[in-house]
Amino acid sequence: MYAIETGRHRRKGRNIMNSNEVQAIFRDEFGVEAISLRWDDGEFQTVIRGVDCTVVWSFEEISLADEYRQKAAPSVFNLSAQGITLDAYGDLRHCRLTICFPLQIFTGIFSELIVHAEFPDESESRRYCDLRFEWWIDGVRVGVERGFDLDDTVARLFAGGVPEIKPQCCLSCAFSGYNPFVGGPLRCFQEVREAYSQTKTKADMYRLMGGPDTDAFPDVHQFHWCDQFQPRIPGTGNRG
After folding, report:
1. What is the arithmetic mean of pLDDT over 110-135?
2. How much is the pTM?
3. Could you give the 3-state DSSP secondary structure of residue 123?
């Protein structure tokens, strides 16, 4: 696993690339806490100071878990007693989240993608967080990008890093894609490789998926890795 320490990271034990759990650091005016993010059904689940929370897959917000939100009345949305500041929607505000995603670049050789998400104060007009991505290889930072769109920003980061090195993760896999009708998390189409590689239009995807909204294909997070990874080939598949 990996540990993050005050803006730097260090190796700690054995990294498991295909784990659905990653380490993170949560910071706000009340202090700093090491947490774990667990990928579950298209979202990251975590516990911050004893409160169950959900980190939206695009890192746009941190919300109270549904079961906690249902129990909480608007009058108790301010959880200052637990050291958590929420807005009227039950989303955490005025805080920062630093997440470390291990990335495989060659067999047995790993790098790290550090995601810094800064969530604005409720008084600020912007609704979503600022994202900064850092790509580290063997302790050396090889790229930094900022942006609001996760996929586009990470694509620029990988393209501008080290030309001969391309991370092996679901985002850059030939058999991953998004639902073109409803969006949502990245989906894995490994079970229908040949058919997915031939898709070009929404109509093709409609026939492949069996409708505009289906759970037939599993959700994966962008930086997950599995041993079936194949690099994306330009011009093939729905994402091109």
Report:
1. 78
2. 0.76
3. coil
CA angle 181, 99, 130 (to 5 degrees): 65
Per-residue 3-state assignment (H helix, E strand, C coil) for 80-95: HHHCECECCCCEECCE
10 Å CB burial of residue 35 (0-12, 13-18, 19+) is middle
Closest CA to 173 of 190, 151, 198: 190
Q: What residues make up the domain containing 229?
A: 168-240
d(CA 36, CA 47): 8
Q: Is the pLDDT of residue 144 over 60?
A: yes
Select the more confidently predicted residue: 184 or 54.
Answer: 54
Q: For residue range 29-72, list pLDDT tens digits in order.
A: 889 999 999 987 778 899 988 888 888 777 777 887 765 555 55
Q: State how far the Cα of 147 lies from the Cα of 132, in Å rounded to an integer.
A: 7
**H runs (alpha helix) in 59-201:** 66-71, 150-159, 193-197
* Residues 190, 175 contacting (CB under 8 angstroms): yes
C-alpha torsion sign, points 138, 170, 154, 32: negative
Q: In terms of DSSP H, where are the helices of the chain? A: 66-71, 150-159, 193-197, 202-209
Q: Which of 159, 188, 203 is the last residue of a domain?
A: 159
| Number of separate domains in the chain | 2
Single residue among 159, 192, 222 that ends a domain in this structure: 159
